[in-house]
Amino acid sequence: MRHLLIFDISGGELVVILVFVLMFFGSKGIPGIARTMGRAMRQIRDASAEVQREIQRGTDDVKQGYEEQRRTFNLQEPPQRHAPPSLPDQPPAGEPPPPANSPS
User: Fold this and answer.
1) Computed from CA positions of residues 58, 59, 61, 65, in that sequence, does the dihedral angle turn out positive or negative?
2) Residue 28 and residue 34: Cα distance in Å, rounded?
């Protein structure tokens, strides 16, 4: 037997909830409740969109500041890296290697 799950509520539970709402609020109160819920959902959606816009504005401001700094310092190319110094266990270029220790 397959159950309809909406927010972890089966079909039978959903029917019981709807009957309770109908009995408690009556047929005339349900449209008002639906309107109120619709307005609340719209306000939540609008607030969420506003938060997303604010985050986008913040990232745009950071990007703009970065680009201004980049233009100010003329960082068109990354800085040139120098070759790492020779390691201490390697002889400098042009010198013969040290004699190998013979096993005793």
Assistant:
1) positive
2) 11
For residue 10, what pLDDT is reported? 82
Contact status, residue 12 vs residue 19, Cβ threshold 8 Å:
no
Domain boundaries, the chain: 1-73
17-66 pLDDT per residue, tens: 888 888 888 888 888 888 999 999 999 999 999 999 999 999 999 999 99
The secondary structure of 24-87, three-state, reads HHHHHHHHHHHHHHHHHHHHHHHHHHHHHHHHHHHHHHHHHHHHHHHHHHCCCCCCCCCCCCCC
